[in-house]
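Researcher: Sequence recovery benchmark, item below. Answer with residues only.
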């Protein structure tokens, strides 16, 4: 037992990316992980998806631990320990859903426990399964390095309007894991079918109430910067956290004129970063040259 001052950099992040099939969970988790660490070789992915982690091997030299059925919670813990012992700095678990609903996972263990009772009692059967699941959660929470989890989402169809006609669209609904998993993590990003991330939980304040975005290495870099920063965020830090041009302009307009002049080069640099590698959208093109009486940075 030790009393010490709270420090962000001493707390590795526990993150969750969820979404329906085809939403880009695996690719997004790899991109985010790359931003959290210095190089691809610092990343290990625990793959429960039939070797799918190898599909992105062209990105860099990350490591893979293939986890096949049975998906007993203890096997996940063994894989986590193996990655930590190998010196990995960020571990991706793709995905946690198998620990719950996969072959040999908690739901199957619960069914076996229930059927083994002289008088089957589904509620009482959880007494032997819940501690196993809790040990799995504890292994993630207490892991000394960053952990990025992916989770499947139960899917459903909703009717949306497309060019004046109703058409079905597949959407994510609920996590395929035991209720309450997202209480244990710091950031939960939910992906839609257009690979856009919607933030449903954020202890850092970096992504909550922001426009949907595509997860990239920059996402992980922003999280890592937050971990290494003090509670008082500098203006440079606030500029680097802006994830869209409207957000950048809003911050610019909130400053006094001397502050704007002093930080003009930082704003221009962030603008270039936001626009690099993509076309300027109509929304950006339509942003006025002048706003609130200030000559903004476009």
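Model:
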């Amino acid at each position: 037992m030790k009393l010490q001052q709270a420090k962000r950099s001493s707390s590795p992040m526990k993150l969750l990316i969820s979404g329906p099939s085809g939403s880009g969970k695996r690719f997004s988790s790899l991109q985010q992980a790359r931003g959290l660490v210095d190089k691809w070789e610092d990343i290990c992915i625990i793959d429960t998806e039939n070797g799918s982690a190898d599909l992105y091997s062209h990105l860099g030299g990350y490591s893979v631990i293939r986890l096949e059925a049975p998906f007993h919670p203890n096997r996940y813990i063994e894989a986590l320990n193996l990655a930590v012992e190998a010196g990995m700095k960020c571990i991706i678990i793709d995905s946690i859903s198998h620990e719950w609903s996969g072959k040999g996972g908690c739901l199957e263990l619960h069914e076996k426990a229930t059927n083994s009772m002289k008088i089957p009692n589904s509620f009482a059967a959880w007494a032997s399964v819940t501690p196993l699941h809790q040990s799995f959660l504890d292994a993630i929470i207490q892991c000394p390095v960053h952990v990025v989890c992916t989770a499947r989402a139960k899917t459903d169809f909703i009717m949306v309007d497309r060019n004046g006609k109703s058409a079905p669209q597949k959407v994510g609904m609920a996590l395929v894991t035991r209720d309450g998993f997202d209480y244990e993590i710091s950031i939960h990003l939910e992906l839609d079918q257009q690979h856009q991330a919607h933030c449903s939980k954020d202890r850092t304040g970096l992504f909550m109430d922001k426009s949907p975005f595509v997860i990239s290495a920059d996402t992980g870099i922003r999280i890592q910067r937050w971990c290494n920063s003090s509670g008082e965020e500098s203006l440079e830090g606030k500029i680097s956290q802006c994830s869209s041009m409207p957000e950048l302009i809003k911050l610019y307009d909130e400053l006094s004129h001397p502050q704007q002049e002093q930080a003009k080069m930082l704003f221009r640099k962030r603008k270039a970063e936001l626009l690099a590698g993509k076309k300027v959208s109509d929304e950006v093109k339509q942003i006025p040259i002048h706003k609130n009486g200030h000559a903004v940075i476009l």
